[in-house]
Amino acid sequence: MWEVILKILVISIVGIVSILVLSSLLSSIYNASESLFIEHIRITGAAILLLVSFSLVVLNLSLTRHPFYEYWLIIGAGVIVGIIYIY
């Protein structure tokens, strides 16, 4: 059961990272960076991304006997993108 929860967290992190990166690509093509609504959604998405990444860290370290190192790549990407989009 915990493996399913960990996989759902990984999929959600990859999805949010993809959405944030694609939103930057879209704003460079279409000048949507002036909209405060889109900026608010980016900051909220980044905060959610950091929260999900840190919950994956806690669950990975507490629930598994051997921490899976492939999760650390996903966690690292989530934290880096989250920090970039918050600032």
Low-confidence stretches: none
Structural class: mainly alpha
Shape: elongated
- Rg: 14 Å
> Can you give the mean pLDDT?
83
Explain what you see.
This protein is mainly alpha-helical and 87 residues long. It has one domain. Helices cover 85% and strands 0% of the residues. The chain has 3 helices and no strands. It has helices at residues 2-29, 36-63, 69-86. It starts with a helix and ends with a helix.
Question: What's this, in brief?
Answer:
The chain has helices spanning 2-29, 36-63, 69-86. By secondary structure, it is mainly α.
Could you name the key traits of this structure?
single chain, 87 residues, 3 helices, 85% helix, mainly alpha
Tell me the layout of helices and strands.
Layout: H1 2-29, H2 36-63, H3 69-86
Helix pairs in contact: 1-2, 1-3, 2-3
